[in-house]
Amino acid sequence: MEDDTTPRENDQRGHGWYRTLVEEVNDLATVVDTDGTITYVSPAVTRILGYDPDELIGHEGYEFVHPEDRERNADALETVLSDPSESETVEVRFRHADGSWRWIEATVRNRLDDDVIDGILLSSRDITERKEYELEFQELAEEYEALLNNVEDAIFLINVEEDGDTVRFEFERLSPSYEHQTGITTEEVQGQTPREIFGEEQGTELEANYHRCVNAGEPISYQEELRVGEGARFWQTKLAPVVSDGGITRLVGVTRNVTERVERERQLRQQNERLEEFASVISHDLRNPLNVARGRATLLAEQTESDHLDPLLQALDRMEAIVEDTLTLARQGDTISETESVSLTDLVGKCWATVDTADATIEIVDEMTFQGDPGRLRHVFENLFRNAVEHGGSDVAVRVGSHNETGIYVEDDGPGIPVEQRDEVFEPGQSSAQGGTGFGLTIVKRIVEAHGWELSVLDGTDGGARFEFEMAEQGEFA
Questions:
Q1: Closest CA to 376 of 444, 326, 320, 327
Q2: Is 42 in contact with 117 (CB distance < 8 Å)?
Q3: Residue 37 DSSP class
Q4: Distance from C-alpha of 310 to C-alpha of 306, rounded to nearest angstrom
Q5: Could you tell me the pTM of the whole model?
Q6: Residues 119-140, buried b or exposed e (16+ Cβ, 10 A)?
Q7: Which residues have a Cβ under 8 Å from the Cβ of 293 and sit 6 or more positions away?
């Protein structure tokens, strides 16, 4: 069958087909002449940039391009004019009809030889969201680099590769701080497993914690031993998983060299063990002959009269008090590891009943409960009550209550403690009371600090001494 259409009709049909295609696709099609004047804009411009096509036709495209991007746009146009076989893709900011700037990615092609287009064709799409994401990603990457390069703690990144039931851990990157503290560099470990770097024994221990983090699916903290140098052996590490596409693809570790702290704790344990041995010697080997001497002196006092007997018995009683206080100091100053809920009223009542208070009075101003070790705290309140009676007299008035919602106070109306002596009173052997051991307030300070509290001495409400304990955690007040 013969085609009866003329060449002109074929051209018109092709032109119409092309225009229909351009107007229906989502991308924005623009045609400019060699001077950059817009000769055609597809209807997509309304949806993408808010303009009616007639608002742009006849204007130079540069008018709508951001000043900082015009040179890049001109270079792309010049390239395709110089070599029609080349195409250029350029990203520029184009002014929206509402005055805002939108990022446009345009592919530029020379179609001057095309009878239908007869110009430079730009196929464009809005990439504003992508550019914003890239900018955000770049800012995060810069923050990440700043953190990695400047934080004092050592940071390491582990790639997690799962293959069926097996998981492979490979070092990806080490922070400069990690490299400085261990002497190991990223280049040495990148792509290597912990066993390949640290040997079978240490590597297996490291991977056990990595497996634990992956299985937990959440951050974990632990102390590990990693021998990388004389001054770096023990590390406090926090490991966190990075989830991507529903799976853990990376572990981020932040670790701190705690070798000195661990060594100090070890030395402290050894000192405490020796102190416990010393306390046992005092408790058994010294107390037994002391009890014999007191018994003999008591019998002697019943059988004869002598001016020397009362001073002898007083000296023996003082020795007994010193032994008791020394044992308390040796055994009660350790850090408190276990606590329970303590009622201030119950604790004060029990302590007041065990102290020889003569005609002294006690007032509990506030009722509260708090976390502490009631056994050790009895030594605190008993010593403070005894101290108040010894220095304030047999009729001293003692008051106990709460302050600042996070602390306890014990005060009396005695003579008080001069400001210049308030630091000295906590030193062992410091006592102004006749017959005192000088250890009472030292015991108070040791036990209070073992709780993690702060102790201070102030003037009492009625001019006496006031001892305040500031607790680390808030108590519950009734």
A1: 444
A2: no
A3: B
A4: 8
A5: 0.42
A6: bbbbbbebbbeebeeeeeeeee
A7: 316
pLDDT at 106 over 70: yes
The amino acid present at 368, given as its one-letter code, is M
Give residue-wise pLDDT tens across range 427-473: 764 554 444 445 678 878 888 888 889 999 999 988 899 999 998 65
Contact criterion met (CB below 8 Å) for 321 and 287: no
Instruction: Enumerate residues 6+ apart whose C-beta is below 8 A from 366.
Output: 344, 401, 402, 477, 478
Residue with tokens 């634990």: 212
CB pairs under 8 A, 24+ apart, for 385-389? 385/351, 385/352, 385/355, 385/357, 385/360, 385/410, 386/355, 386/356, 386/440, 387/433, 387/440, 387/441, 387/465, 388/360, 388/412, 388/414, 388/464, 388/465, 389/355, 389/356, 389/357, 389/358, 389/360
Lowest mean pLDDT among 42-51, 80-89, 102-111, 258-267: 258-267
Nearest to 259 by CA among 238, 235, 237: 235
The answer for residues whose C-beta is within 8 angstroms of residue 458's C-beta and 6 or more apart is: 466, 468
Average pLDDT, the chain: 83
Tens digits of residue pLDDT in 141-164: 677 677 777 777 888 999 999 877
